[in-house]
Amino acid sequence: MVDRLTLPRPDDWHLHLRDGAMLRGVLPETARDFGRALIMPNLVPPVVTGADALAYRDRIRAALPPGSRFTPLMTLYLTEATDPDDVVAAARNGVIAAVKLYPAGATTNSDAGVRVIDRVRPVLEAMAGAGIPLCVHGEVTDPEIDIFDREAVFIDRVLDPLRRATPGLRVVMEHVTTRQGIDYVRDGGPDIAGTLTVHHLLISRTDMLAGGIRPHFYCLPVAKRAGHRDALVAAAISGHPRLFLGTDSAPHADPAKESACGCAGIFTAPVALPLLAALFEAHGACDRLADFTSSHGATFYRVAPNRGRVVLEKPADPEPFPARIDTGAGPVTVFDPGGACPWRVTEIQEE
Ligand code: NCD
Ligand code: ZN
């Protein structure tokens, strides 16, 4: 039986930190366990220029707990007005690690996103030339398409044509939720990777909807059938080098979620690593966890792995996880898939 796991300090390749009081409340939850995270740009207003990203990175750094070595890796929010030269300069100067494509209307704060892909063609071409990854929220927004089919349809209608039209563009299909998404990444060659969230590995749409509607299990892309969830788990534990962790931890204050029209987003940051350890252990795959959390993503993003380590153990009498985090912007419920999780992060080794 495995009762101790030592991982190189993990990276979270998809994280929402927000701004202001919410940022100050949630950032320590990620900075404690993770070495770096790729920070999503869907603020209001969004992070659209290199200068915006630099200013946001400064605000994040200022909100870090004293002594923290956490590194925020920034993204730009792609709009139809994005200037290719600004993107390339921001990447060259080390300000951004990627650009994010939100189809307009697909998710939280995506109204400024892209409506017509052809209008961002010059940006995509400049990114392909400079090797800058495009992170994609892969859902069509066509109201005719059932919400449970939006990812699979996106692959055929948008993602595949986009990649064929822009050879060499490096793409991350984020928060993959379907078998089709997994297959597309696996079969797609070296220029495409996929991230998987903790919650999509653990819950299905039935968990969200059976026995009462659970707003804290609601996110976008919405959780799919259990069969899709099982395909995600199989892919995560398979050790595929182009599949890695991006939590999509997305805090909203509880009143905004527990509402007649609740926001999409699940806050997993405080529990992400222990829940993953339990999942990989349940599948006899503890030896693959470090690749998933700490190595495959760094390789795709062409950065060295973090130097420190985190240790996970199973304490005899584990502290319960917090049910919610109190932030200056209100309480935020922490993801709880049910069942007991024996794992806890017990030690951080800085170098
Ligand atoms: C995210 C958010 O709240 O910003 N919500 C979510 O359900 N994942 C946006 C996103 O990544 O789609
Ligand atoms: Zn997200």
Helices and strands, with pairings:
Layout lengths: L3 E5 L2 E5 L4 H12 L4 E4 L10 H14 L7 E7 L6 H9 L3 E6 L19 H10 L3 E3 L13 H16 L5 E3 L5 H9 L4 E5 L1 H5 L2 H5 L16 H12 L5 E3 L8 H4 L14 H11 L6 H12 L8 E5 L10 E4 L2 E4 L10 E6 L2
Parallel strand pairs: 2-3, 3-4, 4-5, 5-6, 6-7, 7-8, 8-9
Antiparallel strand pairs: 1-10, 10-13, 11-12
Overview of this protein structure:
With 351 residues, this protein is an alpha/beta fold. The chain has one domain: TIM Barrel (Alpha-Beta Barrel), CATH 3.20.20.140. It is 34% helix and 17% strand. The protein has 12 helices and 13 strands. The strands form 3 sheets. It has an 8-stranded parallel β-sheet with strand order 2-3-4-5-6-7-8-9. A 3-stranded antiparallel β-sheet has the order 1-10-13. Strands 11-12 form a two-stranded antiparallel sheet. α3 links the parallel β4 and β5. α3 runs parallel beside α4. The longest helix has 16 residues. The protein is globular and about 55 Å long. The model has no long low-confidence stretch (mean pLDDT 97). Bound molecules: N-carbamoyl-L-aspartate (NCD) and zinc ion. The site of N-carbamoyl-L-aspartate has 11 residues, from loops.
